[in-house]
């Protein structure tokens, strides 16, 4: 069978699944801006729209089926009338393309699953078509009659023919311009007016009969439902008819159709945002019109979810006002950790708001757990401002309850300050909220449960981005875990780099079971060997190809004193992730077959990756392990991220406490070596200098202007040398430590080598290297290009390790010296003669010191160009041997 070649589509335009006229029109409007784009229709449940699309739109515009295009060819994805990843399942494979650019046009509210974007045009106008029409007007483009009519359909439908409260002046302006472009209002009217079929009249009667009115905080809400095994076409039309017939302000219609529940909602009451409610059910829309499709739930369960959302969103201000505790117990920001612990213990508080001294202006939140931990590190006299949480949400008294639930339940902020103007009026705690919800007959909306937001499946990304051998390894480990009955996760940087689209071969597995036992079984399957560390309950599986797989037992680390090594206790995967350094590394990916690719994110890592932010998990992170400061800088520079404001403040606090002085030299040196292995070590070192870290490690390591200059050159020559693929390979830390110690006197070097925990051998070799560099630079000053022999250059540099030679190249400001060192590294150091000891023996020369003398003289002659071929070299050997014999005879 002949393989059908798929169409290359560099630019694709699409909209949300179950498209309406606004989505369809916005796609066509976008195609005017993005020429030669391919349009992918997402499908629609409305028969009127489907028929219109089939009969006319496919012939007029560049629509294609997704199966007909090559997903990997897509470079730019334009999404209209939504920003939510879950609402564009028909183009999901495209989202995994590396370097994919995304442009968004939408009029719906923000959501937690909004796509990352290169460009985003979002306005709260009546329709998305209006937004793009204004873009078309700005670019002085024109439309034909068919295009203007279609765009008019989108605007008229989503504004209820300008009858919805969400209609804006911009919608009228866009419609007026479309009329000038030839919009046919008769066609618009015909397509938006519907005659009901006999079956639809029956369904309408059922909906009217089943309708019930509920008073939700003073707002009348109509809920109705039908149940059928067949799909009900134009279900939204029936809801619209109910609104017109009964003069209803707010209606929610639930339709069980086969195995799904379809929810269609309309609102003419500004206090009821049906778009927000339907978004919580997994759907979307705007304030006046919205819909959702729910799988795996009954009508009763969806109805319960709706009531929970009603009570949390509809006119809930009176609930917030009565829910908060007042007056709040507070602590002023000039108090100490000791003061905070005493206050919270006296009142039984888990958290206390911190206010500016002499005011009620809230500046932070102090947690009892953090304060207790600070006490265990003997930091009781330290001011609370050092460890209080500065990044937190506050709400006004009239904020709706849904927002409160979002912050406390979904964003995991345990205590929420309530403000009136600039002053703290009260607080709402998680306990307050839960007690209210227990008394309330409605359940918490599923969309606000932390578990739901922490987990999504990225199995497709994993399979597309990992090499086949790595994917096989993960699947094998996951299957083993299922066979034993344990959950198995990949954790840390490996998961982070999957999301970033970066290669990473450092595989860390965490097992909710016995990690050492698991490692032994995995090694048996894969044919590897195991190195176990019983104290830490970890193991390393070393495969035959050299691949290493670290396996850990799910655990929690705590630190007995600042800068101590960790003590290990068993715990769950959540506790294991909590022990990690930064949120972006506190990710887990489940690899058991039944849930392969399930992403576990307890601490907002995905958000921080999107925002390109490095953030610690808790306030005492740097107190417990100051080396995390160096890691923060390394990750910030590697990924082009930014250290978050709270995290930066904690870094400065750790430096003020002089915690680096408590760190062992070996731990500091290990982190420095990792930094110096980075692609851009200089930016890391300069960031460390900016924050005062170099001096905190040792005052002699302060980076001055001269060191900046030589370090800059060292990066250049290092990168140049790597591109030559020469032997021997560079040991980066030796190279950059030379730069950092430039100008330090010989008798002072020992202070640095001792601080960085050099071994005696490393210290001796480092001092010798510095001496060789000084001697070599002096000799190079006397070497003259074109006058001095190349062999002399070779003899000067040959015995200096390559790190020293590169340092000399970077250090020298004389271009001819740099050029000559370059010649040595790229050509002379790898020169060899074709003659070896076996040749000398075959020529009858007795083995002994003479071999070294002869071979050295041959190499010098070759470097100077006096001999080239093997024959010339053999002739020279004979002459040298004869000369040696004659000298020996004369001495006798």
UniProtKB/TrEMBL annotation:
Keywords: CBS domain, Magnesium, Metal-binding, Nucleotide-binding, Nucleotidyltransferase, RNA-binding, Transferase, tRNA processing, tRNA-binding. This is Poly(A) polymerase. Its cofactor is Mg(2+). SMART domains: CBS (SM00116). SUPFAM superfamilies: CBS-domain pair (SSF54631), DHH phosphoesterases (SSF64182), Nucleotidyltransferase (SSF81301), Poly A polymerase C-terminal region-like (SSF81891). PANTHER family: A-ADDING TRNA NUCLEOTIDYLTRANSFERASE, POLYA POLYMERASE. The keyword Nucleotide-binding applies. Residues 324-382, 388-447 form the CBS domain. The lineage of its organism: Bacteria, Pseudomonadati, Thermodesulfobacteriota, Desulfovibrionia, Desulfovibrionales. PROSITE patterns: CBS (PS51371).
């Amino acid at each position: 069978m002949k393989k059908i070649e798929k169409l290359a589509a560099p630019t694709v335009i699409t909209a949300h699944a179950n498209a309406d006229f606004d989505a369809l029109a916005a796609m066509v409007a976008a195609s005017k801006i993005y020429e030669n784009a391919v349009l992918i229709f997402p499908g629609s449940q409305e028969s009127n729209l489907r028929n219109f699309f089939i009969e006319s739109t496919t012939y007029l515009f560049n629509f294609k089926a997704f199966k007909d295009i090559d997903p990997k060819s897509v470079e730019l994805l334009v999404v209209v009338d939504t920003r939510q990843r879950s609402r564009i399942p028909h183009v999901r494979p495209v989202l995994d393309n590396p370097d994919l650019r995304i442009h968004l046009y939408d009029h719906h509210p923000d959501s937690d699953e909004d796509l990352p974007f290169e460009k985003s045009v979002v306005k709260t106008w009546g329709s998305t078509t209006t937004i793009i029409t204004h873009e078309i007007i700005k670019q002085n483009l024109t439309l034909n009659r068919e295009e203007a009519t279609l765009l008019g359909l989108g605007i008229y439908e989503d504004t209820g023919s300008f009858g919805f409260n969400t209609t804006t002046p911009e919608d009228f302006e866009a419609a007026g311009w479309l009329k000038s472009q030839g919009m046919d209002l008769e066609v618009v009217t015909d397509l938006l007016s519907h005659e009901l079929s006999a079956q639809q009249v029956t369904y309408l009667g059922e909906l009217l009969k089943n309708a019930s009115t509920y008073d939700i905080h003073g707002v009348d809400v109509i809920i109705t439902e039908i149940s059928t095994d067949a799909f009900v076409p134009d279900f939204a039309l029936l809801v619209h008819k109910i609104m017109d017939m009964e003069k209803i302000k707010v209606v929610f219609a639930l339709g069980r159709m086969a195995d799904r529940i379809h929810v269609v909602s309309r609102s003419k009451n500004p206090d009821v945002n049906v778009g927000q409610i339907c978004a919580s059910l997994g759907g979307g829309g705007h304030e006046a019109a919205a819909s959702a499709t729910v799988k795996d739930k009954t009508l009763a369960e969806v109805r319960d979810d709706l009531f929970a959302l009603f009570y949390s969103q509809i006119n809930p201000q009176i609930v917030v006002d009565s829910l908060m505790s007042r007056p709040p117990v507070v602590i002023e920001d000039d108090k100490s950790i000791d003061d905070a612990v005493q206050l919270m213990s006296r009142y039984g508080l888990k958290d206390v708001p911190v206010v500016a001294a002499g005011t009620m202006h809230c500046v932070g939140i102090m947690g009892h757990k953090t304060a207790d931990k600070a006490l265990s590190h003997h930091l009781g006299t330290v001011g609370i401002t050092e460890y209080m949480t500065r990044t937190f949400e506050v709400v006004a008294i009239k904020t709706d309850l849904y927002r409160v639930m979002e912050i406390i339940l979904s964003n995991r902020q345990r205590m929420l300050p309530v403000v009136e103007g600039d002053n703290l009026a009260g607080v709402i705690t998680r306990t307050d909220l839960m007690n209210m919800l227990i008394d309330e007959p409605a359940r918490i909306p599923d969309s606000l449960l932390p578990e739901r937001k922490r987990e999504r499946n990225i199995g497709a990304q994993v399979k597309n981005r990992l090499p086949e051998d790595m994917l096989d390894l993960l699947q094998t480990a996951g299957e083993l875990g299922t066979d034993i009955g344990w959950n198995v996760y990949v954790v840390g940087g490996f998961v982070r780099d999957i999301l970033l689209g970066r290669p990473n071969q450092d595989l860390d597995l965490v097992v909710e079971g016995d990690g050492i036992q698991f490692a032994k079984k995995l090694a048996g399957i894969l044919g590897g060997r195991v190195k176990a560390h019983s104290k830490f309950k970890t193991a390393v599986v070393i495969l035959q190809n050299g691949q290493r797989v670290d396996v850990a037992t799910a655990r929690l680390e705590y630190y007995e004193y600042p800068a101590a090594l960790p003590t290990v206790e068993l715990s769950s995967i959540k506790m294991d992730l909590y022990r990690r350094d930064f949120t972006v590394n506190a990710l887990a990916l489940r690899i058991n077959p039944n849930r392969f690719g399930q992403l576990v994110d307890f601490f907002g890592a995905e958000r921080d990756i999107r925002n390109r932010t490095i953030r610690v998990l808790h306030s005492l992170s740097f107190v417990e392990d100051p080396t995390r400061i160096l890691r923060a800088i390394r990750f910030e520079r590697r990924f082009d991220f930014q250290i978050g404001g709270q995290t930066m403040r904690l870094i400065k606090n750790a430096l003020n406490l002089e915690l680096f002085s408590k760190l062992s030299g070996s731990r500091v040196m290990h982190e420095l070596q990792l930094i110096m292995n980075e692609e851009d070590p200089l930016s890391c070192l300069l960031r460390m200098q900016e924050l005062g870290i170099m001096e905190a490690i040792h005052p002699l390591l302060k980076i001055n202007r001269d060191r900046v200059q030589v370090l800059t050159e060292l990066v250049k020559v290092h990168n140049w040398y790597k591109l030559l693929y020469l032997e021997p390979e560079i040991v980066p830390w030796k190279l950059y430590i030379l730069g950092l110690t430039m100008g330090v006197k010989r008798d002072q070097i020992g202070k640095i080598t001792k601080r960085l925990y050099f071994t005696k051998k490393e210290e001796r070799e480092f001092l010798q290297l510095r001496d060789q560099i000084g001697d070599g630079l002096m000799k190079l000053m006397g070497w003259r290009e074109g006058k001095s022999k190349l062999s002399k250059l070779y003899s000067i540099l040959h015995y200096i390790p390559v790190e020293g030679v590169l340092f000399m190249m970077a250090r020298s400001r004389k271009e001819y010296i740099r050029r000559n060192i370059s010649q040595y590294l790229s050509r002379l150091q790898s020169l060899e003669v074709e003659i070896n000891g076996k040749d000398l023996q075959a020529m009858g020369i007795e083995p002994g010191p003479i071999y070294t003398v002869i071979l050295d003289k041959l190499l010098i002659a070759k470097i100077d160009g006096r001999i080239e071929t093997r024959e010339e070299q053999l002739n020279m050997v004979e002459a040298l041997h004869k000369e040696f014999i004659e000298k020996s005879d004369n001495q006798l």
